[in-house]
Amino acid sequence: MKLAMIGFGQAGGKIVDRFLDYDDRTGSGIVRAAIAVNSAKADLMGLKNIPQENRVLIGQARVKGHGVGADNELGAEVAEEDIDEVQNAIDAIPTHEVDAFLVVAGMGGGTGSGGAPVLAKHLKRIYTIPVYGLGVLPGTDEGGIYTLNAARSFQTFVREVDNLMVFDNDSWRQTGESVEGGYEQINEEIVRRFGILFGAGEVGDGQEVAESVVDSSEIINTLSGGGVSTVGFASEEVDMNTGGGLLSRFTGDGGGDDNLDAANTTNRITSLVRKAALGRLTLPCEIEGTERALLVLAGPSEYLNRKGIERGRKWLEEETGSMEVRGGDYPREEPEVAAAILLSGVTNVPRIKRLQQVAIEAQDNIDDIQQESEENLEELVEDDEDELEPLF
Ligand SMILES: Nc1nc2c(ncn2[C@@H]2O[C@H](COP(=O)(O)OP(=O)(O)OP(=O)(O)O)[C@@H](O)[C@H]2O)c(=O)[nH]1
C-alpha cells in the first residue's frame, strides 16, 4: 500500500523520518511521499531523511519558529492559518499514485496534537482517498497538560480521520533509557509494526507469488468504518538457508517428513498469532469486541502456509467475536517470520476511557490549565531565545 505520510509536530516528523529509513532498509516501498510540518524550526532541522523541500514551517508570524509550547489550541490555530503552506507541499505529491494519507502526530504536545486534526479535516474535504491518523499518546508521567492535550486531540482526531491507529508511549516506556534513546527504540517498534501491515499490500511485480497475499483493498476495508485501531506483533528468527523446516534439507523424498515440516510451519504460525494478539498491543485493550481485524504473516515464503494462516484467522475470529477477520501472507526475504495483527474498531480501551474522563474533568478547572499552558509557552520561548538565537 502506497502512503503519503505527513508528520505533524516533533514526534510525527521523527516517526515519518524513520518510516523512510525503514523503506530504505527493507525495500518495502510504502512511503510514496513524506512531509514534515512543524512550528519549531529546530525540530525540522533535526530530521534526517525527509527532503528539505518537504519540511514546512508554520506559525512563523505567531511563534517565530519556536514551537507552540504544548499549547494545543495555538497549535490548531497556526495550522488553520497556514494550511496553504502545507497544501503547497502536498500539491507536489503525485496523489493519483497514493492509496491513502497517513497523518502522524504525538497527541501530548501542541503543534501535532492541535494541527493534525485540522490537517486531516482539510485533506478529507479535498481528496477522495482515505485519510488515516497515527496518534501517539503521552506517558502518564509527562504531566497534566500533556494528558489534557491528548484527551482533547484524541476527541477531534478520531472524528476527522477515516481511522485512528494509536500507539501509547505509556505502555512502551523503557526504564534506564535516556528519553531520546528511548524514543529511538520506540519509533523503531512503531515502524516495524506498521511497516509490515502496510508493506503487505505492496507485494507485487517481480516478487514471489504468495498463496494468499494481502492487497491494499483488504487493509482499506479493515480500516473502513472508522474508530480506533491497535496493532499486535510477534516474530521469530528463522534460518534462511534451511527452507520450511530443517528436515527438508536432509530427506530428499518428502513423504512423511514433508508433512512434519508443514506441521511445524503451521504450529509456528498459530503460536505467533496468539502471541501477537495476546501480547503487548500498540494500544493495550480487550481484543474481544473488535469490529474488524487483519492478520498478516510475513517471512520467507517457505515458512508460510495457508493452513497456518487460516487457523490463526479462525482463532482470531473466536477471540474477537468479529465476523470480519481477514488474513494473508507477505512473502519477504528477511530471516524472521512475523505476525502483525491490525485490530480495528476496538471498544474496550482503559486508557481512552481515562482520557475521556480527564477531558470531562478539565471543563471544571479550565482556568488553572490555561495558566499552566501559558506559563509553559513563556518558559519555552525564553529558553529558545537563549539557545536558538544563532538560527535566525
Ligand atoms: N513515540 C514517540 N513519542 C514522542 C517522540 N517525541 C515526542 N514524543 C511524544 O510526543 C509528545 C510531545 O509531542 P511533540 O511531538 O514533541 O510536540 P509538538 O507536536 O512538536 O508540539 P510542541 O513541541 O508543543 O510545539 C510527548 O507527549 C511525547 O510523549 C518520539 O520521537 N517518539
UniProtKB/TrEMBL annotation:
UniProt keyword list:
Cell shape, Cytoplasm, GTP-binding, Nucleotide-binding
* Start and end residues of each Tubulin/FtsZ GTPase domain: 2-195
The protein depicted here goes by the name Tubulin-like protein CetZ
Instruction: Cite a single GO BP annotation.
Output: regulation of cell shape
Q: Does the keyword Membrane apply?
A: no
Query: GO cellular-component terms in the record?
Result: cell division site; cytoplasm; microtubule
* Protein family: Belongs to the CetZ family.
> In which residues is GTP bound?
10-14, 110-112, 142, 169, 187
